[in-house]
Automatic annotation (TrEMBL):
Protein name: ABC-type dipeptide/oligopeptide/nickel transport system ATPase subunit
Gene Ontology MF term list: ATP binding; ATP hydrolysis activity
Organism: Murimonas intestini
Protein's UniProt keywords contain rRNA-binding: no
Domain ABC transporter: start-end pairs: 3-223
Origin: domain of life: Bacteria
Record GO biological process: transmembrane transport
Pfam family, one: ABC_tran
UniProtKB keywords: ATP-binding, Nucleotide-binding, Transport
PANTHER family reported for this sequence: ABC TRANSPORTER, ATP-BINDING PROTEIN, TRANSPORT ATP-BINDING PROTEIN
Amino acid sequence: MMLKADKVTKAYGGKRILQDASFHIGKGEFVSIMGTSGEGKSTFARIICGTVRPDTGSISFEGTPLWHTGTYHPASNYAIQLIPQQPFASLDPRQTITAALMEPLLFHKISRSRSEAQARAHELLSQMHLGPELFSRRPGELSGGQAQRALIARSLTLTPKLLIADEATSMLDVSSQTDIINIFRTLVEKEHISVLLISHDQPLVESVSQRIYQLSHGKLMEI
Ligand SMILES: Nc1ncnc2c1ncn2[C@@H]1O[C@H](COP(=O)(O)OP(=O)(O)O)[C@@H](O)[C@H]1O
Ligand SMILES: [Mg+2]
């Protein structure tokens, strides 16, 4: 199993958000967590990504605990990437989208030269259906859907194994939403990346997921 959560519990100031939540996702699986607003979906995503500490329970990635004695140990090689709800908040407004992708490629020495990084950036942007006319644009010159696709392209620079999309399409119009969901589908089918889609949108979740969990009153149940 790629990611496995076992009996995770979390309370905020005495208010129980997650109660013995267990969950798993395998390689190349498209799994969703559904639930109405305020049920704790983002809290669960943040526990996986290390920004919220669970009270009890265990979470492991490829057999290695992510949380151990209260400390988060990130999966190696940035294997887990979060796609947030608000793409514009995660992109530098002064940077072109090509530069936004070249930065991690050069910083992590994935590309050996600026020209190689630029070529890889353009390749990833094209894969996300962002054409050459958009390569030099800054976030302010993009639609929400285009910005979200640029952000997905940026997360792919680090060849993640698991993408967590926390309401990543809920700010978008229906056609941009379909675009992004189709991109996730292709990543699952062609690259065997795992996608965890977190959404309150039941028809959307039911149309794309291989398995679905429902989060309700702190309980995470497979349906
Ligand atoms: N840092 C925090 N401190 C206190 N309460 C929080 C915090 N983060 C979230 N909550 C509360 O926990 C509940 C679940 O929040 P959240 O995980 O964001 O739900 P969802 O993503 O399903 O809408 C909400 O009632 C929210 O107000
Ligand atoms: Mg949320």
